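#lab-general

N.A. 3:47 PM
ok so I finally got the sequence cleaned up, no stray characters, all 303 residues accounted for. can someone with queue access submit it? mine expired

B.Y. 3:52 PM
send it over

N.A. 3:53 PM
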Amino acid sequence: MHHDLLRDELKSLTTEAADASLDDIDLVSTLEAAQRMNAGDRSVPAAVEPCLPAIALAADSIAAAFARGGRLIYVGAGTPGRLGVLDASECPPTFGSDPSQVVGVIAGGDVALTTAIEGAEDDEAAAVRDLDTLGLTADDVVVGISASGRTPYVIAAILEARRRSALSVSIACNPDSAAGREADIAIDVVVGPEFIAGSTRLKAGTAQKLVLNMLTTLAMVRSNKTYGNRMVDVRATNAKLAARSFSLVQDVTGADDPVVSSALAEADGEVKTAIAVILTGLSAPSARQRLADAGGSLRAVIS
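B.Y. 4:20 PM
back already:
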């Protein structure tokens, strides 16, 4: 009986529907198939557009959580879980954020990043345990990611967030999704049937990546982690990023090479501090303190 109900439920989801116009993709040339796939992919950003007010609200809420010492916690199973872990892992090198500030949780644990774990997405108790292990508090924001919007692991995480008075956000790819109905903020990006019916790593995965990009990027901009569109909190952890750091300081200040090199050395490689040193004449410790007092806002310090 349970399987009959599940089948009926899945039939009603646009993410599970088959596009009849693609029934012959195995008969056409590879180029034509690629052209059709590309045409379908072009619809994804347009599907995100109606969700922009909800995305902006969520980004502001995440920035507010950061300001009170809270975290952004992504929760998902399978592809959505991997996308959450990916976005979380890219925040420290891009924004100089603490690795604990944005966290990705995937059903089944780290092994699920590379291997499909049978039944992990249905394990509601595991979602509660995983958030408990993280020490979820009311200061945090939980973002549940699920293409169908009905993944039990994700819905359980959203309900646990509510129980602990943490703000919850749902990202799904069906209208009026089950997860969205339980969350404080629902982001339902309706991308329609996939190129391969039900393969939600395709348009749905692209839509989720776009939304995750927006959530962290906009929250970090609101948190003064950038100067305009410059990543001035970047950490120079490799040669490419060291070169980028030098270019950033020079781009913002217009200073000569020796001045930039000296300021970066004095600032222990901190781009924001080096820029403040050059533009204000402060010592690195004073510039660092001024930035801290201004909530990390380089614009406030140099103006």
